[in-house]
Amino acid sequence: MLHAPAQYFSLASTSSSPPAERPFVIGLPTGASPIGVYKRLVNLYNDGKVSFKHVVSFNMDEYVGLPRDHPESYHSFMWNHLFKHIDIPPENVNILNGNADDLQEECQQYEDKIKSYGGIELFMGGIGPDGHIAFNEPGSSLQSRTRVKTLAYETILANARFFGGDVSKVPKLALTVGVGTVMDAREVVVIITGANKAIALAKCIEEGVNHMWTVSAIQTHPRSLVVCDDDATLELHVKTVRYFKSIEQVQDEMIGRENLEVLHRKQTGLGASI
């Protein structure tokens, strides 16, 4: 299942053969959801099918007060799972600094840097069981920008597994891009897997836009894609699942998977694959 978003992601970020002066700008998440995608991207790179030399990345979030080289920092996560395995220039990697002297200024500079590149082309994200995207937890403004965020106790408790089960060691604050920051991207891909996120998926696509389920904001995005497994659909109405699977079936029969890349280029204006 995760091969699909990896293929989509690599196509969108590299098929236009971006020049150095106009790099392709991507937004990236951490957590369990994207690990399979990152493995696939590394494999594509090792096979010589993609290059990230002219790609600029912006990560969604980072803990406040956790040393950059801490094994559970998102800096460490990204370098261990993706960046050190591909050819992206280190200077093109952007991750929020949770140890900055002025956290508010760090957040504003992050927003300004995104704007300096002309915005983000493609933002990929995962969600939590409560439907939060990045660290935009229930109650976050759907117009929010990059900022300091106090983590909900449920999030702290869920993340304790990465800190030896000790809740006291989990950071209580984080820097995160806002819902508005994500929604400003020209394309958004959200990966939702597992039965523990089934309610969030149902809230995301079967109910209205609601700041208590921040991922639901993608309903209003003109180019959004949700990638999910069967377990994540357990709370959806049967007719909803059948409807979307029927679309996939018709698409495969009429277009053919081998022609999807051509269709994507026509829709996005991307050039030939490198």
UniProtKB/TrEMBL annotation:
Q: Which organism is it from?
A: Linderina pennispora
One Pfam family, short name = Glucosamine_iso
Q: What is this protein called?
A: Glucosamine-6-phosphate isomerase
Q: Which residues form a coiled coil?
A: 93-120
The protein's matches in NCBIfam families, at most eight in alphabetical order, are given as: nagB
Q: What class of enzyme is it?
A: hydrolase
Q: Which CDD domains match?
A: GlcN6P_deaminase
What is the reaction catalyzed?
A: alpha-D-glucosamine 6-phosphate + H2O = beta-D-fructose 6-phosphate + NH4(+)
Q: What does the function comment of this entry state?
A: Catalyzes the reversible conversion of alpha-D-glucosamine 6-phosphate (GlcN-6P) into beta-D-fructose 6-phosphate (Fru-6P) and ammonium ion, a regulatory reaction step in de novo uridine diphosphate-N-acetyl-alpha-D-glucosamine (UDP-GlcNAc) biosynthesis via hexosamine pathway.
- Output the InterPro entries linked to this UniProt entry: Glc/Gal-6P_isomerase (IPR006148), Glucosamine6P_isomerase (IPR004547), Glucosamine6P_isomerase_CS (IPR018321), NagB/RpiA_transferase-like (IPR037171)
Q: Which keywords accompany this UniProt record? A: Carbohydrate metabolism, Coiled coil, Hydrolase, Isomerase
GO MF term set: glucosamine-6-phosphate deaminase activity; identical protein binding; isomerase activity
Tell me its EC number(s), please: 3.5.99.6
Q: Return the similarity comment.
A: Belongs to the glucosamine/galactosamine-6-phosphate isomerase family.
Top-level taxonomic group: Eukaryota
| PANTHER family on file | GLUCOSAMINE-6-PHOSPHATE ISOMERASE
Q: Which residues form the signal peptide?
A: none
What cellular component terms from Gene Ontology apply here? cytosol
Provide one Gene Ontology biological process annotation.
N-acetylneuraminate catabolic process
Domain Glucosamine/galactosamine-6-phosphate isomerase, by residue range, is 21-220
